[in-house]
Amino acid sequence: MCGGSQGGGIAIAAAGLSEGLLAAMPEVPFLCHVERSVGLTDRLP
To answer: Which domain holds residue 29?
Structure first.
């Protein structure tokens, strides 16, 4: 399973729900640590 950006975040979530998955290759996963993302800046997205 692989994905980039938003697909990387979804790949991580899907990999966690999959049984028998051999590998996951998320590339630059987006929105994986929302609390940290909010704390990085006080500007709107």
So the answer is: 2-40
